[in-house]
## 1
Amino acid sequence: MTTTMVGLRGVGKTFKGRNADTTALTAIDLAIEEGEFVSLLGPSGCGKSTLLRIIGDLTPPTSGEVTVNGKSPEQARRDRDYGMVFQQATLLDWRKVVKNIALPLEVMNLPPAERERRAREMLDLVELGEFGEHYPWQLSGGMQQRVAIARALALQPSLLLMDEPFGALDEMTRERMQMELMRIWQRTHTTVVFVTHSIPEAVFLSTRVVVMSPRPGTVAGIVDVDLPQPREFETREHPRFFVKLNEVRETLRGAGVD
Amino acid sequence: MTSLRKWGPPTLVFLAVLAAWEIWVRVAGIQGFLLPPPSEVITTLRQEWNVVWAAGFFTLREALGGLIGGSVLGVLAAFAASRWVVIREGVMPFYVAMGAAPIVALAPITNQWFGITNPVSKMTVVAVMVFFPVMINMTRGLGDVGSDKLDLMKSMAASEAGTLRKVRMPNALPYLFSALKVAVVLSLIGAIVAEYFGGSRDALGVYISQQAGLTRMAEAWSGIVVATALGAALQLLIVLAERLLIPWHPSLRG
């Protein structure tokens, strides 16, 4: 039995412009179950990031209804149900790595000893144990993003929201980070909503890929990725992997993306 | 080796300029009341040391008083501006315009207000001079945080005060330091120039202008040497504080 982590019903978003309004999203219906790894995939400007921000209560929807963990997004945010990872690692330059990871724990007013313990634990989870006393700028881009993931997971959120987190990394680092994320996901069983415009990335990581159409963004189709778990290096060579890649491509084409 | 490489060239240039000055004055036979040779300035400085040093210290106190007062007010005003849009948008353009005004021109007025020999008259000029760059830079530092960082804090349901303390204030420190580097220079300029309009007999600006008026140029120049040394010392203090407080800043990364 599963429970719904994210429920979207008729969600739309229109940005007011000086000359004309822009409809970014329209009539989005989607339910994400607990423990799922769902990717929002679509071309640039399809509103996938906006949708993620709506789920995370960073942008209000213009219409429709959003529930997270059975609550309003605002309540979920106040209850600290979210972990967020952005395209840029967004680490605080003036804090050492371990202190960056401890930031949400400080915001929550946990006692210092507890903060330190949990931050170290997260540091080990992302396999950066010996880099705790480094400053962010002393780490590579991939390592910085791992710190950002550790920080997002420090609060043990019920929902991890990731906005093109590997978009700024080179291809090789990117594939390594995908493996890393799968390993972490296997251990934490956090529900993940992951925004990307890379088809292989979406297929490799997700249990379901939500394919979105160009503006105004809407759900063009959903591809169930029934590849064996845990995902590992060989998954990318699995015959079903290519079948799923094509299925996603076809759905995108059907939505009017060439 | 590295410190020799770093400090060697400027030291050599400095000594060369002094030597050229000395030789030029002696060879061209320039009169002492126009430009004294450096050797004479050094001799005079040693003879007059007690007087000049006391004057320097007096003026330093005025400069520091104004610097601290103006900076504290500038920082407080920046907090207010970053907190309330009304101040930021309504008052800031006015501040920016005021920052361009030659504030030292206020000196005769503050002399009237507080009394010509009262150090407060000079401190006020300095404080007003320092206020604007500190206020403007600090406001920028509290504001230029990046929407990602603000989104991050919001996603953690951080309070406004928490965001201020953990993100805005550390972010503003480098901005504050670059303002303070300008401010220390302004503070000495402000104090000394304000003293040219009249002030206590113990003040450096008064000493310099009186000695120059009597064409005792070596004395005037030794006053300028002390003023320069004080400026350099203040600047050095700020740089040291900066290294201590923001070692993470790109300009200081080893």
Note: Chain A touches chain B through 26 residues (CB under 8 Å).
## 2
Amino acid sequence: MAFKWPILALLALTLFVFNACGTDDPAEENEEELISEVHIKFVPKGGGEEIEWTWKIEEGSSAEPMIVTSPLAANSSYDMSIELYGEAHSHDGEEDHSDDDHSTDDHSGDDDHGDDENITEEIRKEGEEHQFFYTVTPSSLGLSFSYLDTDGSGNPIGLLMEVTTTTTGSGELTIVLRHELDKFAAGVATGDITNAGGSTDISITLPVVIN
Amino acid sequence: MDIYLYLQHCCINKDLNMNVPVKPVWITLFLLSLILLFQNSLSAQTNAIHLKVLCNHDQRILVGVSFYVPSTKKGRISDNEGWLNWQVPLELDTAAAVLVRHIGFRPLEISIGELMQTNVLQLDEVGFEANAIVIQAKSNENAARIAINIDKQQITTLSDKTLAGMLSSESGISSMGMGDAMAKPVIHGLFGDRIALIKNGMTIQAHLWSRKHAPPIGGLQSRAKLTLYKGASTVLLSEQALGGTVVMDSYLPGDFGYQNAVFTDVQSNGFGAATGFEYGEQKENFRWKMGWYGSANGNTTAPNYRIENSGRRTNEVQFAMEGNRPNGLDWQFFSGWNRQHFGIPNVAHIGNLDDLTEALERGRPLSSTEISYDLAEPKQLVDHLDMQGIIKKEGGNGIVFSLNTGIQLNMRREFDIRRGGRSERPVADLHLLDLQIKPMWLIQNGANQFFKVGLDWNWQKNSNIAGTGIRPFIPNYSTARLAAFALWANAGTNWDFELGTRIGYRYLDAAYFNQFGDLSNRQRTFVPFSGLAAFVYEGFEHVHLKIESGLGYRAPNVAELFASGLHHGASNYELGDPDLGAELGWKSLIQADIHLVDNLLLTTTIHSNVVDNYVYLRYSGDNTFTIRGAYPVFNYVQERAWIRGADAQLSFASSQKLKNSLQASYLRADRNGNQPLPDIEPFNARFKQEWMLPVHGKLERYHPIFSWEIQYVDRQTRFIDEELFAAPPPSYALVNAGIRMKSNHERKWTFALQANNLLNTEYRRYLDRLRFYMHQPGFNILANFTYEF
């Protein structure tokens, strides 16, 4: 046959590639955008003990989040601040995906976040693209929120809030952080999420008790 | 038909876990025995008629022209290249009359003897140009296959010249994706890598598994030869082509249908424009051409709002050359670069299940937007580079050797809205390198039969480029594949057939992160085998019959095997299954071209595709919870599927100035009995009229033709509630109209003006994922001008 060489070349190439076609492991990425912890501080306006709530989860896991809350006092006003943290990744392939991190529930009063990254300032800098929404269920619960901070365009962000309680009761608080939303849509400036659009960066629900 | 029954019995196994139910060697032996059996039929003495059929008006080739001898009830039709290859038995008198008929052309009566002396037969057009595109004459291969040459005029007036758009006007063909631009063709319900895309003999390899991944085919392809095979082309091209094959062949200067040209399109919806050129030269033993195409579209409008970030830009450069050496060696070289840059409408950027629910309830963006050409995140940027070399040399004894080699690099970058100034960093950055080598021997045995045998070698390496800041959703992987194939084609007096088989070996090595973030490695091996049997009979006076059956074998792709995690922007948490088996498909078609009278042609196709281990993405019913909220979990699962249906097209010329066509397509797809399969195009029909305008004076020479059509798409009523986010959209009807004219003087030009969605109808397409969030584009006026020189 006049064309033996293509077959020989093909076989040689095949053998070469079959031996050489090992696959490189994909690089482990430093997922800087993941938010894994939320800390909410309530400072009574008239003075008194600070209250801190915590919501924490390991991103991508199916485990239940670790939630720590304390009762709020009825007929009170608080200055509320919210802080977001990203989980620090070791990236050495030895990450422990067990639930040992979730057992830590003591964040009261200090900034014990280990190597976790504080993302709050990033949200503040990009305030025109972000807004928090605080929704209380049931709506009859004596708990209301009003924005204390604004972005460069004068629209609310929601990192700082004024919280007012009235009667005692219990319910749930859902906190949503929206990204690339329409802050000029109807109701958005007053905290109504209905017409906000955008995409959700966090959506967490915490139990509320007002004593 | 026994062949098909045998193959079905052997190879379609109900056991989902049984991937190789029959030893391929038995199929090979069976096919070889058939070859020996039929060998005796080749000894009959015949006279050869070999000619090309052209239109006398503009020299375009004519496909499907009927040649019929009433005295013997024998006949043939011209093939997809316009060739008539007919071995007329010696006992037939050369003075016997042959009736030549083709819709839209004056019937002709001519003797067999005259046909034997003719190389080119020209038919008189009575009013209309036929829809067949001008194509290159090469050989009579694939004469037995059910194929469609895509209507070039239809392509001219498309708003986006994507591959899916170019094909979707054919019955049985639809498109799937995110909007019109990010779409891929669907043939009889199958899509993705079940459809082989072949460019100059090389399989196009890109990241095509997801709905939002469009094939890297640009607008220059609208000037190439485009042929669609609805059957399973699983021998010569790819064993994976269970659904069909799209073949794109470049013209070169000197080919039928090639002209140097400049062309431009504008459209009102999105204020889009596209332009390009193709220029080449032909010298002794050498010819070349190059082309460029670029387009830009702003935000498009649905009937009641403009859609934010819905623009797109494309850029394409193609180069080709061909030469012949004195020693009889023919060579070809092709290379190209194609860039697709798509904005993804912000409304489709879904954060979690709550966002999705809200978006579904709205069904449209919160607000309208202004016209803009900016492409913001989320968006896709895909570059595809390819280079290909082909050599062909004729040896002795009718043996032709060819070697087709190709290299491709597909670079896909997907961008999302991110915090902290990271939006300019892609969330996915993939490079897919692909090498192909295909030596093939064509052994011609007289004018009536040929054998093709060859090898097909392919190697791929996919790499995630580090630095995205997102855990890779698709693994790093490499695959190597080697296959051997053999095909036998034979032509009788009024029949053709093809018979072939293919067997190979595929190795896959993947490194990926599983859903818990752990790095895993996995290797899989597959032993693909496939077969094809096609038969065409042209012995009836009024009916041409084609029967085709193919076995296909598709190894699951890496997304189906290893996807693990959040599919960005799609709100899906997708989980692959590393243990999925290969799909085994058996697709059969019967097509009848019925010429009842000279001005009426009915083409009907009945098809059936049984796919064992059919892989699809199914909602698990569970949600996974993250700090962003809940995401629905989708799993890749596999079940036995049966997809069948019918396509029909009726063409009739009610006068010399008025041509009508009616086409319809019905598809039914079940899995595990009679449970409906998701993502199946509903019933659709189209009626079109073309009217040659009765103009006089100078205008008459430009042959102005007015056309209008109404397209109806029914609602898909076969679905399972729990598997859909939202019910299928309602039925709709669209009206389109246009006018086109051309000059056929020394310098040719064509002009087309088209109004799509004339009534500005608000509608959604079932196979468009964006239907959840927005409507399809509204009224659009398009204009195309092409100047050929």
Note: Chain A touches chain B through 56 residues (CB under 8 Å).
